[in-house]
């Protein structure tokens, strides 16, 4: 059981952040990581523009979840669900290359 918990798929070596901790992440990342995030966000936008908009508002503008829900005129729970999906999707796209802290 101890070995299983140390596997990569169980988060070994990853840095966990609460969802609200993303507010200041964009300002602390190196330029090359921001470029990779932007490229991944462009790919996400092609698949789901609404989810990409939530990421932009949260990650780059630092908006709170209630602010985003009001801006995109959607229920807060839907916005929170889409944010979780987007973080997972972006992490899969970026983490193997950069070790990003999304």
Descriptive notes:
This protein is 67% helix and 0% strand. It is built from six helices and no strands. Helix 3 runs antiparallel to helix 4 and helix 4 packs across helix 6. The longest helix has 23 residues. The chain starts with a helix and ends with a helix.
What is the structure about, briefly put?
Helices cover 67% and strands 0% of the residues. The protein is mainly α. The longest helix has 23 residues, at 76-98.
For the secondary structure, the number of strands is: 0
Which class best fits the helix and strand makeup?
mainly alpha
What helical percentage do the residues reach? Answer: 55-70%
Q: Write down the secondary-structure element order.
A: HHHHHH
Q: What best-fitting shape do the alpha-carbon axes yield?
A: globular
Instruction: Report how far apart the termini are.
Output: 28 Å
Uncertain stretches of 5 or more adjacent residues: 19-23
Mean pLDDT: 78
Count of alpha and pi helical runs? 6
Q: Output the radius of gyration.
A: 14 Å
- What profile does the largest beta sheet have? none
DSSP strand content: under 5%
Present the secondary structure layout.
Layout: H1 2-5, H2 25-28, H3 31-47, H4 49-60, H5 65-72, H6 76-98
Helix pairs in contact: 3-4, 3-6, 4-6, 5-6
List keywords for this structure.
single chain; 102 residues; mainly alpha; 6 helices; 67% helix; globular
